[in-house]
Amino acid sequence: MNAETQTHSGRHAIVARQDFSDVTFLLEIEHPMMARAAKPGQFVIVMSHEHGERIPLTLADFDAAKGTVTLVIQAVGKTTQEMQRDCQVGSTLYALVGPMGVPSHIGHKRKVVCVGGGLGVAPVYPQARAWKERGAYVIGIIGFRNKDLMFWRDKFAAVCDELIVCTDDGSAGLHGRVTAGLEQAIAKHPDIEEVVAIGPPVMMKGCAEVTRPHGIRTVVSLNPVMVDGTGMCGGCRVKIGEQVKFACVDGPDFDGHLVDFEDLTARLVRYKRAENEALQTWKDGCRIRTAAESAAVPPPMAVDQPSTDA
Hints:
- It contains nine helices and 18 strands.
- By secondary structure, the protein is α/β, with parallel strands linked by helices.
C-alpha cells in the first residue's frame, strides 16, 4: 500500500455528477487529502454505504486545487447499479480508501500513445495529461462502440498533440477498434517510444500484439477481482511472464507483452454466477420494496362534487 494511502469513513460529499449514457456516469467527490496525494494510474476502493461492497475504481481525474477526485463508473453489477441509483449530488459515499497502487511511471519519453477503450478512456486521461506536462508529444486514441457513448473528447484534445477517435460502427471518427487507430499512429510515427493502453482485457491484449513486432514498450492497467487492496486476500493475482504478481500492490500497471491475458480473463469470470445472483437478489428486493411502498399509500380521499340538482 502506498505510504500516502488514507482510509476515511467521513461521508465524502458528491459535488457533481454527469451521465454519459444509460449505464456510464461520472461522480466528482470532495476529498482534499486524496486529491493532493493522487497520481496517474492509481485507484481507490469505494463503499457507497455502511453495508455496501468494497469495489476498486481507477481514478479518472483529481484536482488538488478544488480538493476533488473523479470516478467514471459503468453500472454492470449489483453495487454499481445501486450507486447509479443512489449516488446523486448532495449525497455522500460512506468510505474511500486510497490512493492505492503504484503510480504510473511518467518518464522522459519524447513520443507516447495513450489508448483508452470504452470505460478505459477515463483512467487513461490522467496519464495523457501527465505525459503532456512532462513535455512528451502525446497521441491520444479513444474508442467507443458508437458516437452516443462517446465522452471526454474535448478533455483529450486539450492534452494531446494528436487525437484519433474510433467507433466500432463508424458513426464518428475512424471506423474500427482502437487497434486500427494504433496501427495508423505507428505507421505515421515510427519514433513512438511508449504505448499506454487501458480498457477491457481483449482490447489491451490487442494493443500489445500490435506493438509487439515493433518492440514498442506497452503498459496496461489490470483490474482483476479485488477485496482488500493490500495484497492479503490474493484475489487479484495475475501472471506476468514467469512471475505471479498482485495487481493491488505490484500494479495496476504491467508490461503488456508479459501479461497472461487468458488467465486474467478466466479470473474475471470466475465469480460471474455469484455476481449475477447478487444482482438478481438486489433487483427482487427493490421490486418488493416498491410494491410495499405503493401498497402503503392510502387511496386518495373522495372529493364532494357540487350538486347539479335544479
